[in-house]
Write a structure and sequence with these properties.
The structure holds two protein chains of two kinds. By secondary structure, chain A is mainly β. Chain A contains two helices and eight strands, in the order ααββββββββ. The chains are: A mainly beta, B alpha/beta. Chains A and B meet through β4, β5 and β6 of A and α5, α6 and β5 of B.
């Protein structure tokens, strides 16, 4: 078992949807579920759901070999600016390496993070894929 | 209440290497034996052990206790410190605070890391845990990916070409050629940097550190005890640390926020020239970070650090993480040991007679940063 089941289950909301932490004190919004505002430290925060769409601002094509992550190589790690104005870093999939560029419109898609092959759990989470026009 | 001064009175280190025939106990024993034997100190009040990976790699919790049991030092206070890649300077920070507060007089700091117990891809996995496990690690983001994104942002912001940023590793390898304790003591050409394997584009293999085992030790004492020792003491004037925001929360990726905070605080306390008058060991885990750290410390103008690399006489005399090596939890202790030797007996073929010596360390993309300011007594 690669991951603790309770640990993964507890965060499922943040893995299956893009959840943002909005601070009622300083007004800033951050990707992921924080118990306090990561900018000002206030606990007066609310969790809001992102529309899950954005634009690639920067990316790297990575060949860094990490145990049990080999099947995902080469991987594209991108900085995505969500439509809400918030930055998130995540994997970019369903795109040819030669077609990756800044400005590509992407949306969050459910993909496999990892699995307990050959038996056991499959861990899913959100990655980003190009928006299919007209879809 | 009178606050104690803190001095380094001895340091020891071994060559960073793939020490397949030695475990962490043997490596630590070598530096502990050396650092204590020549010191003139008769009793130690506290041993602070710095180690990053023992839980994951050595299957060992409470490494400081087990180490003391194996070194025949069972009556001493001991604790382990772990703050990711900056653990070594965090251990110094703990020791410094213990002496400053009067809780201890003689403190031994040991940095030890056995990295080569497993192949690189396994170490890469545990190294990734310096990032936020739930937000980053689990989503397959690794430290070199961030370094690559920082380098691309830096090139874009300052209108530079990738080729402009190739001299740092060349310089580090050149420095390491004179350091008997360095892991990679051979020269490289600029061409070799760009033809080495791509890790995370545009970061190449020669932009980053090798994996190796290491151990280093420092013996610290209070102002009260320092007059009893024969060695040339070096004062630990100040140790500071800070934490920065997570990567995706940073709007400007060409800055290292925790390092910037420390640079500002150190200048405020010790003057604007504190970095320019110092020999410095800085945390170049990826070469792009070296350029930005030089800028954060005020040694170079923003976007122009690459222009001054060849002029840096007393920055990373050791060869830095790039070529001396980066045995994670031991690295900060190496830095301080190297600076201690540099200002006393000389190190890597050089001796520094300037006012200060500064060690800078950080973890991941500056998730935490630490600095230690040393000063040789006149």
């Amino acid at each position: 078992m690669k991951y603790s089941i309770p640990k993964f289950w507890r965060r499922k909301e943040g893995y299956y949807q893009i959840i943002l932490t909005k601070c009622r004190e300083c007004g800033k919004v951050a990707f992921f579920t924080y118990v306090r505002c990561p900018y000002c430290g206030s606990s007066n925060v609310e969790l809001v759901k992102s529309c899950g769409r954005g634009v690639v601002e920067e990316f790297t094509i990575s060949y860094n070999r990490v145990e049990e992550g080999e099947e995902y190589l080469p991987k594209i790690i991108a900085i995505v600016r969500l439509n809400e104005g918030v930055r998130v870093v995540g994997e970019l999939v369903d795109i040819d390496l030669s077609e990756v560029k800044e400005g590509v419109e992407v949306e969050a898609v459910l993909r496999r993070f990892s699995s307990d092959d050959p038996h056991g759990l499959i861990y899913y989470g959100l990655k980003f894929a190009p928006v299919i026009k007209g879809a | 209440m009178e606050v104690s001064e803190v001095y380094v009175i001895n340091s020891a280190l071994i060559k960073i290497d793939r020490h397949f025939n030695k475990g962490y106990k043997e490596l630590a024993n070598e530096v502990v034996s050396e650092v204590i034997s020549k010191s003139g100190i008769e009793s130690i009040d506290l041993v602070v052990v710095s180690n990053m990976l023992s839980d994951c790699i050595l299957d060992q919790l409470d490494i400081s206790t087990i180490l003391m049991q194996n070194l025949g030092m069972t009556k001493v206070r001991t604790l382990r410190v772990e703050t990711g890649e900056s653990s070594g300077l965090a251990a110094l920070e703990a020791a410094w605070m213990a002496i400053k507060s009067g809780a201890a007089e003689n403190v031994l700091v040991i940095g030890v890391e056995k990295v080569t117990e497993y192949p690189t891809y396994k170490i890469n996995k545990v190294y990734g845990k310096v990032l936020d496990y739930e937000v980053e690690f689990i989503r397959n983001i690794t430290p070199p990916d961030y370094a690559a994104l920082v380098m691309k942002a830096y090139l874009k912001k300052y209108g530079l070409k990738r080729e402009d940023l190739i001299m740092w590793p060349v310089k580090m390898h050149d420095n390491a050629c004179r350091n008997a304790y360095a892991q990679l003591s051979f020269g490289i050409t600029p061409e070799k940097v760009l033809t080495s394997m791509v890790i995370s584009d545009p970061i190449h293999l020669l932009d980053t550190f090798p994996l190796g085992d290491g151990a280093a030790a420092l013996l610290l004492t209070s102002g009260k005890a320092v007059s009893n020792v024969a060695a040339e003491p070096v004062k630990v004037v100040y140790v500071d640390s800070a934490v920065s925001a997570q990567f995706h929360l940073r709007e400007d990726l060409t800055r290292l926020p925790a390092t910037a905070v420390l640079a500002s605080r150190l200048k405020e306390k010790f003057g604007d020239k504190v970095f320019t008058e110092a020999a410095i060991e800085l945390h170049d885990s990826y070469s792009i970070y070296a350029y930005i750290i030089l800028e954060e410390l005020g040694l170079a103008e923003r976007g122009k650090a690459y222009e001054i690399v060849s002029e840096l006489e007393f920055v990373n005399v050791s060869g830095g993480l790039k070529a001396r090596g980066h045995p994670f939890g031991a690295t900060g202790v190496y830095q301080v040991a190297e600076l201690h030797k540099l200002v006393t007996e000389g190190f890597a073929g050089r001796k520094f007679d300037g006012k200060y010596a500064i060690a800078h360390s950080m973890s991941g993309p500056d998730y935490n940063a630490r600095v230690a300011l040393l000063q040789k007594l006149a």
